[in-house]
Design a protein that fits this description.
Subcellular location: Cytoplasm
Subunit structure: Forms a cyclic heterotetrameric complex composed of two molecules of XerC and two molecules of XerD.
CATH superfamily of the largest domain: Intergrase catalytic core
CATH class of the largest domain: Mainly Alpha
Strand content: under 5%
Number of domains: 2
Distance between the termini: 65 Å
InterPro entries: CB, DNA_brk_join_enz, Integrase-like_cat_sf, Integrase_catalytic, Integrase_recombinase_N, Integrase_SAM-like_N, Tyrosine_recombinase_XerC/XerD, Tyrosine_recombinase_XerCD
Number of strands: 3
Shape: globular
Helix content: 55-70%
Order of helices and strands: HHHHHHHEEEHHHHHH
Family: Belongs to the 'phage' integrase family. XerC subfamily.
Structural class: mainly alpha
CATH topology of the largest domain: hpI Integrase, Chain A
Organism: Angustibacter luteus
Length: about 300
C-alpha cells in the first residue's frame, strides 16, 4: 500500500483508540476494513486519500457483494467507511465527505438461540452439581454461568470484572461495557451464593501474585479469558437434553427473553443489557407468542 495511505490509516486507528475509545476488537475490524478499501483504491490507480469518492465507495461495496460476503460483513464495512470518511474530512484528508450518501444493505437480523426457562434452570443445576466436588475451576464455571444468566452481561464484561465490582450486600455488579460505559446490574440470590462459594472456596486456591483484582481466574491464577468461559458453557450444555448449543451470548439472550416473558418493561431490559438505543433491544429480544396472546386477551375489548 502507498505510504500516504498507510500513514492515513495509522492516524485513523490512533483516532479510534485515543478519541473514540473504541474497543480493541472494533479497532482491528475497522483497520482491516479501511485497509481493504485502500487496497481496492490502489488496484484502480488511486494514489492518495483525496481520490476516495462516492463512486469508488459504491464500487468497493458492490465488489464485496459479488464476492459472496454476508450482509452483516458488508454493513460493517460500510459503517467503517463512513466513520473513516467523517474523520478524514474533519482532519483535512478529504475535501468533502463522500460517504454521506453511501447506502449499504441492512445487517442480517438473525438472533442467537435461546434456552427455555426449564433448560436454563437445568443448566445451572448441572453447573452446581459439578461444583460440589470442590474443584476451583468448577466453582468458577458455576459462578460464570450464574452471572451470565442472572445479569445478562456480555462474556467480555464478565471476564473484565474485578472483585470490588461485586456488591454482595446489594446484589449488584458494576459493569464496564462498550465504549467504556459503566452501568450497575442486579443479580439474583443463587448467583450471590455462587459468588460467596467462589470467593471463599475457589479463588483462594488459584490466586497468585499475577491475579491482581480479577474476579474470575484460570488454573494458573491469571484473569480468566472469554475462551475459558465459552468452553465451560458449551461443555455443561451437553448435559442438558434438547438444549441448543447457545454459548454465553445465548445465555444473555435467554436472560432478556425470560425477563420479557415474565413481564419486565422493555426499557428496563435495555438498561440491564447496556444497549444505547431501545431499537437494539427490540431487535435483540423477542416476546413469546404466549405472552403476546395473554396481553391481547387481557387488553383488547373484543378478545
Amino acid at each position: 500500500m502507498l505510504a500516504e495511505l498507510d500513514d492515513t490509516l495509522a492516524e485513523f486507528v490512533r483516532h479510534l483508540s485515543a478519541e473514540r475509545n473504541r474497543s480493541p476488537h472494533t479497532q482491528r475490524a475497522y483497520e482491516a476494513d479501511v485497509r481493504a478499501l485502500f487496497e481496492f483504491m490502489v488496484d484502480r490507480g488511486c494514489t492518495s486519500t483525496a481520490d476516495l469518492t462516492l463512486p469508488v465507495l459504491r464500487s468497493w461495496l458492490a465488489e464485496q457483494t459479488t464476492s459472496g460476503l454476508s450482509r452483516s460483513t458488508i454493513a460493517r464495512r460500510a459503517a467503517a467507511a463512513r466513520t473513516f470518511c467523517a474523520w478524514a474530512t474533519r482532519a483535512g484528508r478529504l475535501p468533502r465527505n463522500p460517504a454521506l450518501r453511501l447506502a449499504a444493505p441492512r445487517r442480517d437480523r438473525t438472533l442467537p438461540g435461546v434456552l427455555a426457562q426449564q433448560q436454563a434452570s437445568d443448566l445451572l443445576d448441572v453447573a452446581g452439581l459439578a461444583a460440589d466436588d470442590g474443584d476451583p475451576i468448577h466453582l468458577r464455571d458455576r459462578l460464570a454461568l450464574e452471572l451470565l444468566y442472572s445479569s445478562g452481561v456480555r462474556v467480555g464484561e464478565l471476564v473484565g470484572l474485578d472483585v470490588d465490582d461485586v456488591d454482595l450486600e446489594r446484589r449488584v455488579l458494576r459493569v464496564t461495557g462498550k465504549g467504556n460505559k459503566q452501568r450497575v446490574v442486579p443479580f439474583g440470590v443463587p448467583a450471590a451464593e455462587a459468588v460467596r462459594s467462589w470467593l471463599s472456596l475457589g479463588r483462594p486456591l488459584l490466586v497468585t501474585h499475577d491475579s491482581g483484582p480479577a474476579l474470575l481466574l484460570g488454573r494458573r491464577g491469571r484473569r480468566a479469558d472469554q475462551r475459558q468461559v465459552r468452553a465451560a458453557v458449551h461443555s455443561l450444555l451437553e448435559h442438558v437434553p434438547g438444549a441448543d448449543d447457545v454459548g454465553p451470548h445465548g445465555l444473555r439472550h435467554s436472560a432478556a427473553t425470560h425477563l420479557l416473558e415474565g413481564g419486565a418493561d422493555l426499557r428496563a431490559v435495555q438498561e440491564l443489557l447496556g444497549h444505547a438505543t431501545l431499537a437494539t433491544t427490540q431487535i435483540y429480544t423477542h416476546v413469546s407468542v404466549e405472552r403476546l396472546k395473554a396481553t391481547y386477551e387481557q387488553a383488547h375489548p373484543r378478545a
